[in-house]
Amino acid sequence: MKKNIIYLVANGDLRASANQKCEKEQLAMEAKLISALRVLGYTVKRAHGYRSDVKHSFIDSQKYGIQVFSKIPQDAPVIVAEAVWQYSHHILPGLLTHTGPILTLANWSGVWPGLVGMLNLNGSLLKAGVKFSSLWSEDFTDEKFKKGLVAWLKKGEVKHATPHVKSLSRPLAGADASVGRRFAQDFRSRKAIMGVFDEGCMGMYNAIIPDEIIHPTGVYKERLSQSSLYAEMWKVKDAEAQKALNWLLKKGMKFAWGKNEKTELTKAQTLTQLKMYIAAVRIADDFGCATIGIQYQQGLKDLAPASDLVEGLLNNRERPPVFDRTNKRELFKGEALPHFNEVDECAGLDGLITYHLWKKLGFEPENTLHDLRWGRQYVGPSGKKMIDEYVWVFLISGAAPVQHFIGGYKGTVSERQPAMYFRLGGGTVKGVSKPGWIVWSRIFVRDNELHADLGIAEVIALPQAETEDRWQKSTPQWPIMHTVLSGISRDEMMARHPSNHIQVVYTPSPAGAKRGLLAKAAAFQELGIKVSLCGKY
Question: pTM, whole model, 2 decimals?
Answer without folding.
Answer: 0.97
